[in-house]
Amino acid sequence: MTKYNPEIHNRHSIRLQGHDYSSTGAYFVTICVQNRECLFGEIPLSHLGAPPRGCPEMVLNEAGRMIQTLWDEIPEYYPRLVRMDSLSCQTTSMEL
Question: Which residues, in sequence order, are CB contacts of 21 under 8 Å at separation 6+?
């Protein structure tokens, strides 16, 4: 595994300068899969047409269903700290 090297990786923080991220608020998180592998499910070819809402629906596989289950259980572990809104599980990423 390649270690982080600031000379070649050029990572810049996209955090808002001076914002306290431990404060109450709504946060959007995207977690991408290494090498953009399709690990959470697939969009069947039959769904690639024009569905009613204009967005093909993904069929979750076992890993995708596991992510959905864990997402649904988070408030049970942190009932006073977390209110979950939505999860968009895509073939190569999860948007929380």
Answer: 15, 27
> Hey, where are the domains in the chain?
26-95
pTM exceeding the 0.90 threshold for the entire prediction: no
The Cα-based distances of 89 to 4, 16, 47 in angstroms read: 28, 26, 16
SS (H, E, C) 8-34: HHCCCCCCCCCCCCCCCCCCCCEEECH
Identity of residue 1: M
For 15-67, the pLDDT digits (tens) are: 888 888 888 887 777 777 888 788 888 877 665 555 555 566 778 899 989 98
Q: Closest by alpha carbon to 58, among 46, 74, 71?
A: 46
